[in-house]
Every structure is written in structure tokens, then in C-alpha cells.
Amino acid sequence: MSKTGAGNFFEDFRIGEVIRHATPRTITVGDVALYNGLFGPRFAVQSSDVFARAIGYPCSPVDDLLVFHVVFGKTVPDISLNAVANLGYAACRVLSPVYPGDTLSAESEVIGLKENSSRKTGIVFVRSTGCKPDGTKVLEYVRWVMVRKRDEAAPAGGDHVPRLPEAVLASTLGDACPRIDVASYDFTLAGSPYRFGDYQVGEKIDHVDGVTVEEAEHQIATRLYQNTARIHFDQFSAAQGRFGRRLIYGGHNGGRHVSPLFAGSTVFAWSEVLSRAEVPGRDEVGALRLRTVATKDRSCADFPLKAGEEDDPAVLLDLDYWVLMPR
Amino acid sequence: MSKTGAGNFFEDFRIGEVIRHATPRTITVGDVALYNGLFGPRFAVQSSDVFARAIGYPCSPVDDLLVFHVVFGKTVPDISLNAVANLGYAACRVLSPVYPGDTLSAESEVIGLKENSSRKTGIVFVRSTGCKPDGTKVLEYVRWVMVRKRDEAAPAGGDHVPRLPEAVLASTLGDACPRIDVASYDFTLAGSPYRFGDYQVGEKIDHVDGVTVEEAEHQIATRLYQNTARIHFDQFSAAQGRFGRRLIYGGHNGGRHVSPLFAGSTVFAWSEVLSRAEVPGRDEVGALRLRTVATKDRSCADFPLKAGEEDDPAVLLDLDYWVLMPR
Amino acid sequence: MSKTGAGNFFEDFRIGEVIRHATPRTITVGDVALYNGLFGPRFAVQSSDVFARAIGYPCSPVDDLLVFHVVFGKTVPDISLNAVANLGYAACRVLSPVYPGDTLSAESEVIGLKENSSRKTGIVFVRSTGCKPDGTKVLEYVRWVMVRKRDEAAPAGGDHVPRLPEAVLASTLGDACPRIDVASYDFTLAGSPYRFGDYQVGEKIDHVDGVTVEEAEHQIATRLYQNTARIHFDQFSAAQGRFGRRLIYGGHNGGRHVSPLFAGSTVFAWSEVLSRAEVPGRDEVGALRLRTVATKDRSCADFPLKAGEEDDPAVLLDLDYWVLMPR
Questions:
Q1: Are C70 and C226 in contact (CB under 8 A)?
Q2: C-alpha A218, offset from chain centre
Q3: pLDDT at C308 over 70
Q4: pLDDT tens digit string along C262-290?
Q5: Is the model's pLDDT at B255 over the cut of 60?
Q6: Nearest in space to B165 (alpha carbons), one of B95, B273, B89, B111
């Protein structure tokens, strides 16, 4: 048998199957530095051990998005090596803070399968979880992805579309954030004077600054996450494909053609406050539900959206998520 | 009020005002590694904990230029988001060594303001300081920068041009360098046999090797410093601007047009020994005052300089600074 | 005398001479993170401290190739600054594991010299060794390289071609790998179910995924290793040279023109099992001798080789090495 890994095809998945993913990873301050160099976050809590300790963390936690990408990267060789499209994400929750020195591993449960009528592909729904060695969950999310079949005639491993929540409930938030000492939270050092109470539902914020993405940057980022998705790395094959370019993001979405992002394009973003919520048992933080929309090569000063059925080719992403803010 | 940060304009500054900058930062070995990958320093003291300890440091200190860039980066959102030109730097001193694990924050005092006759811009003079949490100063420098006005009619917040030293005095050097055990300084491992006594005033050194700068490199470096200067990152807007390119360095200087550096250009450099000095109370090190001139796409074998009033378009930088050398 | 370092020329080397190289280096988790971002390794032992400890390491060791490149980088300023061609490597052995926090230094013994008949160049053979401060050797290898003469008329410093082994003996392997607790080696987390016994001599494996190399990536990697080879960095001079491009790899080999690798090309690879061997005193691991062939802009599905005397322009590398596998 060939040791060349071909990845799983649609008919290889079974509902209820739990896949333990390879390559556990100890997250280090080196990973954090490279993530910072690639993305440029400026959260004081994640940037300064002193700031973090003052408000109740043992030291700066690792940025949630780095944790997400590391966990996600582990799932790629088993789940999406033969994907034709990432369709969606739901029910993503950060469950515990991660600190430099923590080791993360990941597993995925197949919670749904739906063969497409062409019998050439099918949709795989997985609930993926990132864990520390003691079993503490740090992250979980549901992802669904369209995966090729190896053999059109092969039977599907199940036929079930799971019911997924429209949004994460505010009542389930907060596990990844210890109780904060807001009196010690220095709003000047944090770079923003605004507290939970300063944000209004419906308020929109243009993030103004565009960032151009380079080939070396998305390749280094993808390797940092040990994500093996081929489309990032192989210009020789990409030159013969649909776009002729290595793909950074997008290109497909749920059967609709969504604007693909290539190197040399500039990403802009804006956000809207969708709702505000109390977090049970927490009087020192409140939760804001945000929508962040990202575009390429288009300013967000006028808050562009996809207009109904017709895709605005500039819109790359429309993300719905909660953040905790000090009160 | 919009939460979109627009930065300060000239009329927002007041003489004597002290601005505490956001985003304290714990410097890690990860930051050092990425800095090394981007700039390629080969100083034995900064590279080897064993070498550093042998001569009297507790471990390898962080490269002074990384410290400078991290402190400088913090000042950008408050001081120069609306800058049209960096005009100059003076009185920059490294005041204490920084080690991995140290947390840095920064503040700036406005020490001068001078509106330009057009009333469209003015010059802001700040003394910026980097500190550790216990208040130890690690770095200070004066910078002056031409900043746009929001409103031409607005009154300036002051009218004073501070007197700045032509050069740093040798008698003020040495605070960032502990007493060195020169007997344990291994000149072979250091990569150079030359001691303080081997350098003559007027001596010139061609640094020979050119280094080409890539877009991904200056973007990653700028994010590593949490510097938010837009001109590095937004090709979409830059394409509509004067150069049509993201700018790495230069482009303006004191109203004169100085050679801008863009990705794909190759940087060369040479240095001259301007003077030699004793450092008070230190018999194990001496100070050399150096001038380092950098050019783009031009060898420095013939030690090019800007010729009087006429700019040599190849010259990017003409830097005057002191270094300590073992005796 | 000019302090501009010109490097050694062929006539500067003497047989038996031992050169201590500059710039000792403490390897950190930051270096590991950047190496991971540039190369994308996914070895569980090197990735997870928890995995490493379970099988008998004190923590994750540093990837052998990072150790090789750091040691190699130190030799460049003394050995190959005036090289016209890297000719070969032999007898490379990893002798001790390296952990983050270890400091490496390097030295080289000149073990052979052979002037070329043109008298313009000669071949320098060195045995280079990487060491920890207590003298523990971590790596050694022999390299031979064609180096320019400063002066054609100068006499050579010796005339001797050392006898070099065709291959490393399996009986000398294993020093860098502590005794492994295979019962605790989790093959699922390792990402491969295959043990030593699952590999057959003559078996070939296509590694499938191509990786495109960018200018920023090879420049950052080369600086990470503190390797000063000019051909990586100076596009201004390269534009006037034979290729008109910065060189990533190859371009010369033993007088024959070997396929040079430039940015924008995509690298593919395949491997063959050449032989299997017991490691003396070790019943928990076995040794596989592998040949890995890398190509540019050419899939390796048909296992391409250089065909006898005629170079296949796609083949970049043909590497013969041993790996230890758990039984």
C-alpha cells in the first residue's frame, strides 16, 4: 500500500466517528511572536504579561485566533484535504485560556453527512475540539465542508444534516476569560477608552486601515498552523487551475462563487454591534455581539454588505461573533 | 462619536503635554528570533547567553534597535498617524539593558510646536521614553515630525522650537552596558579582532553586502513593532498616491524630497569613525562616534555622501551614533 | 588595513588548520517557531513537549535540520564567502539532541585542499563540528567547496584529497536519539501508522505536495541561520550576474551546471528506501537509509532521477540519509 497520504474522501466518513488528529503542539512565545508579526494584534492583555497579571490572568494568554488556527490546522489532513469548498462554521466557542507552554491537540466528531445529488461530492459536518493534555477543552466549533468522493458509486457513510444554532448564546460565554479586576484595567494602556456601556446596538465602526497580503505571509502563517491545505503552497499546480494563482481565502462558498483573495490584494473591514448581553454571574464584563465584514480592494467607509442574493465581489467575509468588554 | 480612531492633528498637541501610549509589550525570545530573521544581526553578546554571561550580563540582552522600534511603534498611533514627514531624531540614548521577559511601555512629552506658514501643517517635537514597569527608563529620544492640521483655522497649541544637541555627549553613555569582563570577551567568537584602540578617526569601512528588501519583510517587521503607520500596509491606497507603491522608508525629509525606499531595492551601507572618547568611570570600554550612510541600488565602495545642498538620490540615511567597544 | 571583511581565499587555507567560527548562538523557542513557519515540519516529537516527554526526551528537541543550518551558517563567513560552488557533503552525523536554551558554536578543520588546473580556484575540504559549551558535539559533517583564489600565482596551502565514506554506517547512528519508550509512542498523534517493519527496501513514496518558495522566505531563513552568503540577498548585484536573480539553491555543482532554484518556483519531492539496518544496542528503533530527490516545477509522481550523465533540469537535490523509526 502506498504511504503517500491521499486524505479522506466523502465516503470514508461515518456519522458518529471520532477522529483524533495528528501533531500535538506546544504553543510557545515564539509562535506568538510570529503570529504578531503576521497579523499585528495590539490587545494589551495578550501583549503584556504585566497588564494581564494586573487584571487577573497568570500571564498573557495566547490570542484566541492563534488557538483557533492551530486547532483548525490539525483537522485539515483528516477532514479537508479533498475539500472543494469550505461552507461554514457555527457554534464556535473559546472554552479555556491558553498560555505559552500549553500543549494542544485536536479531535473531530462527524456529526452530519449529506451526499450531493451529483454523487461526486458530499457535505461533511464535524464538531472539532481543541484540548490540553489534562482534557481541558480550549475551543470547539462546527464546520461543514464539501468533500470529493473517490468513487461516485460508493455509498455515503450516513445521511443527516445536523441542526445548528443561528448564533452562540451569550449565556454560554466567558469560560475562557477569568474574572477581571476592572479597577486595574488601564484603559489608556489598552488603547481605547470605551467600556461595554459605550457601545450601542446598531453602531458601526470603520476599521479604516487596509492591509495588503503577500504570498510569503499567507504561506508562513499556514505553516505556523501546520495546516497542510495545498492551495496555499503550490503555484506550479495553481497556474494550471481555475484562478492561476495560489489562493489565500475564499473562492467557493456553499456552491456560490465568492470573491477569492489573492496575494497583492488589500483587505479592509468594518464592524457593527448586533446586540448586547449580560454574562451570567459576571458583573465586571458584558458581551457584545459583533458582525465584522471584510472586503478586498475597497474601503469600508460606507459599510458595504452583500446585497441579498447578489454577491458584492468585494466582500470576503461576514463574521458574527461575541466579544467580552470590561464594564 | 465615532470609535474610528483618526489620530491626533497638529492643533491637538499642547506644549508640556505628556501622552501615555497604548499597548505595553513583554519582549520575548520569539520577538528576538523574528527580529533576527528580518535583520540578520550577528552580535555575539545578543546571540549567545553563554557569551553574554561570560562578560557580565545575566543573559543576552535584546538588540537596542529592536527596543527602539518597539518603543517607537507605540508612539505612532498618538504622534504620527497624520504625519506628512518624519523630520529628524536627536538625543537618542539607550539607558538600560532589556532582557527577554521585560515589559516595555512608552510615553511622550510634547517639547515643541511650530506651525508652518501655510497653516496646513505644523512641526511637533516630542521626547519619547521607553520604560519598564518599575519605572526604569530603557530608552529616550527626541523626534520631530510634520503633522497635518484637521482645520487650517485652528490655533496652534504652542509656538516653541526646542534647542536640541548636535550630538550625544560621550560622558552620558554607558548606562545600558554593564561593566564588561574584557578578559572573558572572546574576540574570535565575536567575529572581529578589533578593539577600541584599533579604530582611527576618519577611518571608513564599506559594509559591502547589499540586502534587498521585500514587501513581506517590511510588513512583518512593522507589525512586530506594533507600528500602525499606514503607508507600510495598504497597496490599494498607495496605488492612488504619489509613488504608487507602499513605502518602506523615506520619501520626505524636512520639506526636501529624499529618496524613498520601495520593495525590490537593495540597501548598501558604509561607516566612518567620527571621533573617539573615554567613557567616565569605564576603563574597559571606549566610545566610537560613527556615521553610517545607507544607499539604495548603489555600492558604497566609494563612500557616497549627499553632496551639499543637492541630494544624491541613492542616499537613504545618514546616521550619527555612538557605540561602545571593548578595549 | 581595511576592516571590510573579504573572507578567505583558496590560498589562505592550510591542511590541518582548525578554524573557530564566530557568533555562538543560543537556540530558542523563537527560532523554532520561525523555522516552523518557514518549513512547516509536523514531527510530533519536535512539536509537542508532552509527546516528547512521554517517549523519553526531557522536552521537544530542536529539529536536526535547524541545528544543521545554524552550524552551517557559522562556517560561511570563514569557509565559503568566496565560493563559486558547493560541491558536496559527506559523513554528516547528528551526535546529540539540542533543546531550546542550548548554545551552539562551530569549528571547522581543513582536511583537504586541491588546486584546480586553472589555478584560479581550488577545492577546500572541511570537517565542521557544532558543539555545546561543555564540548558535547551535536553535529559533524564534511563539506567540500570550490573557492576562488585571490592571486593565481599564490601557492596552495596543501594538496590532499581526503578519502570520504560513500555512506554513513548504520552502526554509528543513534547518539542524538535517547532510548524511546515505544509503548508510549502514540502513532495516531504522530500522524503515521507505519513502523520500521512496515518499510521495504526499494519502496518509493511520492510526497505529493509542492511548495512554492518566495524571496522573503529564503531571505528570512538565511538570516535566521546567520548565514552571510551574499547570493541570497543582493538583487542589485544579481541583476548583473549570470542568472539575473537572487539564488536560493544550486546553480553549480562540481563544475556541472545544476538546475538553480529561484523564487517563484515550486519544489516537489519523493523518497526511496535504500536499505534497512539494526542499530547496535537498540531494539526499539531501526534505521532506514533513504534517498530523497527534490525537483522544481515538476511533479514527482513518476519518481524522476538524473539520468546518468545528462542532468534532468528539474532535479534539484538527491540526498542520501538515515532516519530512525520506532519498531
A1: yes
A2: 15
A3: no
A4: 999 999 999 999 999 999 999 999 999 99
A5: no
A6: B89
Kindly tell me if the per-residue pLDDT of A267 is higher than 80: yes
3-state helix, strand, coil in chain A (%, to 5): 20, 30, 45
Q: Is the ipTM of this complex over 0.85?
A: yes
Which residues are paired to A322 by β-bridges?
A289
Query: Which chains are adjacent to chain B, needing at least 3 Cβ pairs under 8 Å?
Result: A, C
Q: In the beta sheet, which residues pair with residue B326?
A: B285
Distance CA C268, CA A236 (A): 10
B54 conformational bin, left if phi > 0, alpha if psi -120 to 50, beta if neither: alpha
Q: Which three cell numbers stand for residue A256?
A: 456560490
pLDDT at B233: 86
Band (A255; pLDDT cuts 50, 70, 90): very low
Summarize pLDDT for B165-184 with one digit per residue, the tens: 988 999 999 899 999 999 99
Q: Per 3-state DSSP, what percentage of chain C is helix, strand, and coil (rounded to 5)? A: 20, 30, 45
Buried b (16+ CB within 10 A) or exposed e, C223-240: bbbbbbbbbbbbbbbbee
What is the β-pairing status of strands B315-326 and C83-94? unpaired
Q: Residue C21: CA atoms inside 13 Å, Cβ hemisphere, count?
A: 33
- Rounded alpha-carbon distances, angstroms, from residue C257 to C86, C88, C218, C317, C318: 12, 14, 21, 13, 15
Tell me: the pLDDT tens digits for A203-246? 999 999 999 999 999 999 999 999 998 888 888 888 888 778 88
Give the span between the Cα atoms of C22 and C24, in whole angstroms: 6
The beta strand positions in A21-161, using DSSP E, are 25-26, 83-94, 103-115, 121-131, 137-148
β-strand partners of C276: C288
3 state DSSP class of B192: coil
Helix or strand (DSSP H, E) at B77: helix B64-79
% of chain B beyond a pLDDT of 70: 96
Put simply, the answer to whether C31 touches A34 (Cβ < 8 Å) is no
pLDDT tens digit sequence for B290-312 = 999 999 999 999 999 875 555 67
Grid cell digits, residue A295: 472586503
Number of CB pairs, chain B paired with chain C, less than 8 A apart: 129
Question: Each residue of B69-127: pLDDT tens digit?
Answer: 999 999 999 999 999 888 999 999 999 999 999 999 999 999 999 999 999 999 999 99
Residue B24 has which C-alpha cell? 505595553
Q: Is the pLDDT of residue C85 over 50?
A: yes
Contact B101, B49 (CB under 8 A): no
Strand A282-296 and strand A315-326: the pairing is antiparallel
What is the three-state SS of A237-252? Answer: HHCCCCCCCCCCECCC
Interface test with B, best of C223, C226, C247 (most B CBs within 10 A): C223
How distant, in Å, are the alpha carbons of A126, A316, B293, C24, C64 from that of B42? 48, 42, 20, 9, 22
Nearest to B261 by CA among B301, B232, B226, B234: B232
User: B226: which chain A residues are within 8 Å (Cβ-Cβ)?
Assistant: 36, 40, 42, 47
Q: Is C29 on the interface with A (CB under 8 A)?
A: yes
Per the listing, cell 470573491 goes with A259
- Are B249 and A226 in contact by the 8 Å Cβ rule? The answer is no
